[in-house]
Amino acid sequence: MPSSVTVYEVGPRDGLQNEPKSIRTDVKVTLINMLTDAGFKAIEATSFVSPKWVPQLGDAKDVMARVRRAPGVQYPVLTPNMQGLTGALASGCREVAVFAAASEAFSKRNINCTVEESLKRFEAVVTAARKEGVAVRGYVSCAVGCPYQGAVEPEAAAAVGAALHGMGCYEVSMADTIGVGTPASMERMLQATLRQVPASALAVHCHDTYGMAIANIASALRMGISVIDSSVAGLGGCPYARGATGNVATEDVLYLLDGYGIRHGIDMDAVLRASEYISGALGRPNGSRVARALLAR
Ligand code: HMG
Ligand code: MG
């Protein structure tokens, strides 16, 4: 078990990208600012992707212009290609993320190219970003299961993770995009990946569709993974992964970490304020079971 963990907050990006109703830019900015106040060191803020593919994040430039950036905090954004990187650099972003998949079918639906084509594209993005001193994170979507192809071989996920790490991603987040994983499949996938990428360069990104995310994260912690992606109030889902629900809720992850006595540096009360704020703005009940329990006390 690691003694301390980085909780990588993806709510403003992964959490909001799939919302059907348009969310005002100032709501996104307020959410990010509240998350900054809660003590996160990494808050994935938005995506520089095609607004035709993800209309909800079409205001990426405005979000990045208006958000308050605290020293020592990263505000990474997704950049699927050079056009995205150019936009991100122009907005002063100092960390970006590229996102590949362990499944061909998902790659086609999500970014309109094969896995091999995407890796070539990302290599150019990573090289250009690093030349500017900008750090690049990588994602491997569908690392344990794909909405179109079903189960995914651990070696397939490991190979894509190794390719991203090899091209210069400082960290690779292994994602259970549709939340179908169990501790067993998660462990098999991580075992295969750890043969090629060190634990210090790996994160896990669990969606909670089947309610397994916290168990999967506990397994990953036991395997030495010390960066956990999560989303305030359990917001989220991927527009190109039908039926996938939100990411694991940040509050639930913090409660898990507190139970193990693992340091995380996040102020739970401040997260709860952000969580209630965004749930209210979206007009829905808080999606975190831990938040609901703590707020009911
Ligand atoms: P494409 O249609 O093949 O792109 O889409 P293209 O290069 O042929 O360009 C077509 C049009 O898009 C052009 O505009 C470009 O200018 C524009 P037009 O001439 O038609 O007016 N365009 C862009 N506009 C703004 N920013 C850009 C950009 N690039 C092209 N960067 C593309 C390919 C990758 C762009 C598209 O498929 C796309 O944007 N996909 C993004 C999908 C996405 O964001 N999915 C959700 C995030 S991934 C995720 O949630 C998983 C994750 O959470 C981990 C997990 O859980 O698995 C990370
Ligand atoms: Mg995701």
UniProtKB/TrEMBL annotation:
GO terms, molecular function: hydroxymethylglutaryl-CoA lyase activity; metal ion binding
- Give the matching PROSITE patterns: HMG_COA_LYASE, PYR_CT
Q: Any idea where the Pyruvate carboxyltransferase domain is?
A: 5-272
Keyword terms, alphabetized: Lyase, Metal-binding
Pathway given in the UniProt record: Metabolic intermediate metabolism; (S)-3-hydroxy-3-methylglutaryl-CoA degradation; acetoacetate from (S)-3-hydroxy-3-methylglutaryl-CoA: step 1/1
On the tree of life, the source organism's domain of life is: Eukaryota
Tell me the enzyme class: lyase
Which family is it part of?
Belongs to the HMG-CoA lyase family.
The UniProt entry, under NCBIfam families, shows: PRK05692.1 (NF004283)
Checking PANTHER family in the record gives: HYDROXYMETHYLGLUTARYL-COA LYASE
Q: What is this protein called?
A: hydroxymethylglutaryl-CoA lyase
- In its UniProt entry, the species of origin is given as Gonium pectorale
